[in-house]
Write a structure and sequence with these properties.
The protein is mainly beta and 536 residues long. The chain is 5% helix and 61% strand. The chain is built from two helices and 28 strands. A hairpin with a 6-residue loop joins strand 27 and strand 28.
């Protein structure tokens, strides 16, 4: 019940945060649901099959007013097992994105997410609720803060602040064996970010180029060993148009990034002193140890291409974090009901800050395409009515360590006739900046993870009261932290929906999920679900 109250507060508090005015056109539709679920290993490795009875409660809400825009979808599921061999389980799934704009210059933004995600350290996780669920985490995260932008003559001024909070729980610890600690996967991250800029557009004050002076600071705090990541930067950027559709961009500045944590508690011989759960303990009597310390010149050059109001491309390359960086973004509104977006990124970050930044960039109107049977790989959000969406590569792997994350993702959503589509593809590479605990203690310092994820959906409206959806999910994971082989996780589902009136609706769904690789028996978990929902 504590977890239920926590996740509900995370998502349902978003409308209260923006204080929606009475004139807002608000639709709030709470519901309750009963489910019957049957799950079995289709490969025969495990001869048992298990039946679950599920109960769910949730809410779908939209805000569409003069000053407030947003959407919140949240549900809680609890599954009662019919077998004493399997324990009861529950999931929290929800997404909320809300913007409140009391004036033309000031806005307040909030986003929240509750989901389950694959755990870290390159271990497989083909299921959330049924099958091998030992390497999954329940995630709760929120980002919120104000933004201000105005103009004083030819000068534009902007500033924003973002508070981020992320909590992981219900994860299984990783036992490294005798003499080694158990790696703890449950942790909390608090992030604070501030940014400000002042500048002019090309042509301002008669100058042929636009100039912008900007700066910012970030702090991430992870409660595990009191880890911190501090970043500050300042830079000057110039934009020079070379045609009606193309502009050259360049910037130069300075940055400082520092990560540190408490040293671990050890005995006189340097062996870790573990607590009753065999977890590492922090030694607050010792000086903090640096895990990453970098500062110096930053620069990049790039090109901005905007051939129309529907298309934009921005690509930059240069130097940051003491190394070469490449980043960019492409957006194209193919037609009023179809859009594609591609994002390339390169950041030193934490799991919490990466995830809060990703949900903060999502649209405040999206399609709820989550399959009725929970899965591990739905890492993309598709925009409503063919609008822009977004992907969440942070969910590919959960870690309490800081890391450098580089990758690219593409998201396409479309609506045509009776069909609605969405597909997301991404690649993510992480280089971990974990502390070195000593020769006798295992660590993931300098370890690397990489993953490729694909998830897609197609929905066909059959009639005014019925529809069918197809979900496909796949991911490839590789990690050198434990010298384990790479592996695949994949699955799919087909679901049928029907309304039986204003308040009553039903769902029937079948799915299969599995994994391949890592020299283990690869279970194929088949699941069937029927449910009935009452919407208030």
């Amino acid at each position: 019940m504590k977890r239920l109250a926590l996740s509900a507060a995370v998502l349902l508090s978003l409308p209260a945060f923006v204080a929606a005015p009475a004139s807002a056109r608000t639709t709030i539709r709470p519901y309750i649901e009963a489910q019957q679920v049957f799950s079995a290993d289709l490969t025969g490795h495990d001869q048992d099959a298990v039946t679950y009875t599920g109960v769910a409660a949730g809410v779908d809400a939209t805000l569409d007013g003069t000053h407030v825009q947003g959407q919140i979808d949240y549900r809680y599921d609890h599954y009662f097992s019919w077998s004493h061999k399997y324990r009861d389980t529950d999931t929290h799934q929800g997404l909320g994105v809300v913007t409140y704009k009391p004036t033309q210059s000031l806005s307040f933004d909030a986003a929240g997410l509750a989901t389950r995600a694959s755990g870290g350290f390159g271990r497989r996780a083909p299921g959330y609720v049924f099958g091998d669920t030992t390497n999954t985490q329940q995630i709760y995260t929120v980002q919120a803060g104000p933004s201000y932008a105005t103009r004083v003559g030819d000068v534009g001024v902007s500033a924003d602040y973002r508070f981020g909070w992320t909590k992981t729980g219900q994860g299984s610890d990783l036992d490294l064996g005798p003499g080694q600690p158990v790696l703890q996967n449950d942790f909390t991250t608090i992030s604070n970010s501030v940014y400000a800029s002042v500048g002019t557009d090309p042509g301002g004050y008669g100058l042929p180029v636009g100039l912008k002076l900007s700066g910012g600071a970030n702090r991430d705090e992870v409660h595990f060993l009191d880890a911190r990541l501090d970043s500050v930067f300042a830079r000057l950027d110039a934009t020079m148009p070379v045609s009606d559709t193309v502009a050259l961009e360049g910037g130069v500045g300075w940055e400082k990034n520092r990560a540190s944590s408490r040293q671990i508690l050890t005995d006189a011989e340097g062996n870790a002193i573990l607590d009753d759960h065999r977890h590492l303990q922090a030694d607050k009597s010792k000086k903090r140890q640096l895990t990453y310390d970098q500062d110096g010149l930053i620069w990049d050059v790039g090109v901005l291409w905007r051939p129309s109001s529907r298309t934009s491309l921005e690509v930059h390359g240069g130097r940051r974090y003491g190394e070469t960086v490449v980043f960019g973004k492409f957006e194209h509104q193919i037609n009023p009901s179809s859009a594609v977006e591609v994002v390339a990124y390169d950041d030193v970050t934490s799991f919490g800050r990466q995830l809060t930044g990703e949900i903060g960039a999502l649209p405040n109107s999206f399609n709820s395409f989550a399959p009725p049977i929970p899965t591990t790989l739905a890492g993309c959000v598709f925009g409503a009515n063919g609008g822009q969406g977004g992907c969440l590569p942070a969910l590919n792997s959960v870690s309490s360590d800081f890391y450098r994350s580089r990758g690219v993702w593409a998201n396409w959503s479309a609506q045509r006739g009776l069909w609605t589509y969405g597909i997301g593809v991404g690649y993510d590479h992480r280089h971990y900046l974990a502390p070195v605990y000593g020769d006798s203690i295992f660590g993931v310092s300098a370890a690397n993870d990489q993953s490729v994820t694909i998830n897609g959906v197609a929905v066909r409206k059959l009639s005014a009261s019925s529809s069918v959806s197809f979900n496909g999910l796949a991911a490839w994971y590789d990690s050198d932290a434990f010298d384990t082989p790479a592996y695949w996780v994949y699955g799919g589902s087909v679901s049928y929906y029907r309304d039986f009136g204003r308040h009553l609706s039903g769902t029937a769904s079948v799915s299969a999920s599995s994994s391949a690789g890592d020299n283990r028996d690869n279970d194929v978990i088949g699941t069937a679900l029927v449910s009935i929902r009452y919407t208030m």
